[in-house]
Amino acid sequence: MSASDLLVAQGITKRFGGVQALSGVxxxxxxxxxxxxxxxxxxxxxxxxxxxxxxxxxxGGQFTFEDKPxxxxxxxxVAARGIARTFQNIRLFANLSALxxxxxxxxxxxxxxxxxxxxxxxxxxxxxxAIEKRGYALxxxxxxxxxxxDLARHLAYGDQRKLEIARALATDPRLLALDxxxxxxxxxxxxxxxxxxxxxxxxxxxxxxxxxxxxxVMSICDRVLVLDYGKKIAEGVAAAVQKDPKVxxxxxxxDVELDVARx
Amino acid sequence: xxxxxxxxxxxxxxxxxxxxxxxxxxxxxxxxxIGTAWVRITNLxxxxxxLSLGLNxxxxxxxxxxxxxxxxxxxxxxxxxxxxSPHFDLHLPFFVILPIGALVACMFGVLLGxxxxxxxxxxxxxxxxGFGEIIRIFLNNLSQPINITNGPQGITLIDPFRFGTFSxxxxxxxxxxxxxxxxxxYYLLVIVVLVVIVxxxxxxxxxxxxxxxxIREDEIAARSMGINTRNMKLLAFAMGASFGxxxxxxxxxxxxxxxxxxxxxxxxxxxxxxxxxxxxxxxWGVILGALLLSFVPEVxxxxxxPAQQAIxxxxxxxxxxxxxxxxxxxxxxxxxxxPAGILPSALxxxxxxxxxxx
Lengths: 263, 358
What we know:
The structure holds 2 protein chains of 2 kinds. By secondary structure, chain A is α/β, with parallel strands linked by helices. Helices cover about 40% and strands about 25% of the residues of chain A. Chain A folds into 2 domains: about 1-80 and about 175-265, 3-Layer(aba) Sandwich (Rossmann fold); about 95-170, no CATH class. A 6-stranded mixed beta sheet of chain A has the order 6-7-8-3-9-10, sandwiched between helices. Chain A has a 4-stranded antiparallel beta sheet with strand order 2-1-4-5, covered by helices on one side. Chain A is globular, with a radius of gyration of 19 Å. The model of chain B is unreliable at about 355-358 (pLDDT under 50). Chain B has one domain (about 20-280). The interface of A and B includes residues 85, 93 and 128 of A.
């Protein structure tokens, strides 16, 4: 563990009945890095996310975030510590406006109580204004400000993905964990996503990225971790990992080579 | 009052507020002209509005299906009855008891909320239904070995609201206008309901209200966004229960008599129907639902019987049966044509000063 490590995973293990979803996964993510997490379907990528964000409890091992363990924390406590995530199957607050979705992301960084809400004292009014302003700024940041007052479920698919990122950013994360943000996007949308991710990194947020779009992963990630059947089979800079015979075998010698050839 | 109405025409809003105020002020005298019974019916309808608004916090905002809500009404009613009746020979003033009733109901809300935190949908509905029944059965049987609730006989001679010598039960004539007991209660109820509406509107449009809506929409996403779902759900149960407790205390005083029979499951279902019919999560919709389901049956009671007498010379169908028939048809039609309620929860648009069309 070095001083520049933001997140360190040691021996993360998770079982579901007889299925070993994760077995002893170790890795570390450095500050301001874009860290890729890849592997075939069912490799344990999303399980790793769920353990990291406190939705599942690990059966073994621990995460250390900013030198403090995350063990036993509930999802909302993990968010308060500075880890925000998006979901593989988009989980927006569908019947609320895009702006309100982002405003809810500010919950963890704001303080108004029932008392404040009912009496609308000066502090609450100021906070509410700041929440709204920040919400709108984040919508602009990801590029969906024109849909601010539309219901989240009425947004185009690509915009929903961007909105989910804006909502996660609203929690002021130090680490942003994205679960397949490019899934279902066309080439233009993916290119826009790529520059968004680069902006996020430039502005100081570290990114953990699960992605199947190899072209995107190989071009944007500083380092990549490859999981297969819940085990780490490779880790390192993208160029080295994609030549690793174990990785090629895991993808049945197919997808990776093909995608990289096209890239 | 401005918090009540959001519109782009402030002048229109002002006129609207004045009109509503005039109607609310004159209404009881107009109703008393038809018959004092109608003032009582209106008071009961306002109590149902209070209950529906309380339940709306739990069901409409936080999305937690509660089929035992009447239990909190019962708790509030019994707290008032026990502390202001000859039963224990306690006669505390109402402004002391109502907060106690709200607090006790709030505690029962947390008591119900804690074990049900991990339940959702139908499972939660079943547990809350059981909770409502448990409270009622307790009230029915807590007459032995120590007589606390007086069992099924209920509690009688409950004190009306009193301020010194000013009693809400007595009729008074001021400047030629007769203020009967029910009319006095009417004004008090209107004030309480206005306060509760403002509280609800402000809660909904706040950090707390948004957190509830987030839980309703997607609990896992809400937790991942840093919302302490346990505390927020308990808060919803507690707030909803407190409103129920206040309504219960007022019910107790207005009726002067309560028994466990007033707090049966059908009442919980009735209040839930008001919330669903009007439009879950929309405060105005919920109020409309409560008014419709309180007044329409009463109107039917007074019209269906006489109408049949006039046409057929005798009552062919019992008004009560027609009421349930219409109620059933309405709910089925609702689910088919307007599943989100008469006034569905609308999208809240926000005009930000810095917002500009891109």
